[in-house]
Amino acid sequence: xxxxxxxxxxxxxxxxxxxxxxxxxxxxxxxxxxxxxxxxxxxxxxxxxxxxxxxxxxxxxxxxxxxxxxxxxxxxxxxxxxxxxxxxxxxxxxxxxxxxxxxxxxxxxxxxxxxxxxxxxxxxxxxxxxxxxxxxxxxxxxxxxxxxxxxxxxxxxxxxxxxxxxxxxxxxxxxxxxxxxxxxxxxxxxxxxxxxxxxxxxxxxxxxxxxxxxxxxxxxxxxxxxxxxxxxxxx
Length: 235
Known about the structure:
mainly alpha; two-stranded antiparallel ribbon; 4 strands; 51% helix; 11 helices; two-stranded antiparallel sheet
């Protein structure tokens, strides 16, 4: 894990690379994907192409992941993935809490024709969300299952979580902001200003105007802080 954090930190420190935050997220995503291929899930996954029930849930991401998505969207020629269309679909989500999103059937702004339009660059929280029960997903989508519990694949959770903690640790070690916010609100910032990534890399908290950061599990931050401390010793 420490070696992964070192790789991510090295990418974030690359000189004269204004897209290095998004590229660091791409490295973390690649790690998650390759780890899963090497150690696949033993659980039968109910998820299939075109099944997007989980794409109506509240999603919070780290800044590098949003900058990666902004890079992909800006370079895309796909119908519906232009900046204006993405921002229009994100607007209804603005300011809503996870509780308000539950059962509201408000889609992720990157969901097009029932499929993720940025699947290869989807955030780590999406990569860990893989259900073993389609009925449970439908119940949550309909707002029936009040506890919000959907059993997910332990392997997907572990691989994506490890990559997330590594990214978080690299950000902590380099004193970058580690606040996570709702995806739509972050996309609005990242896509509205082509210089947002560069400004963030220079230390400006470009997402500060978003209502409130999402509170992570203390265990996640503690694990990342330990790795960050180890990395700083070698820097």
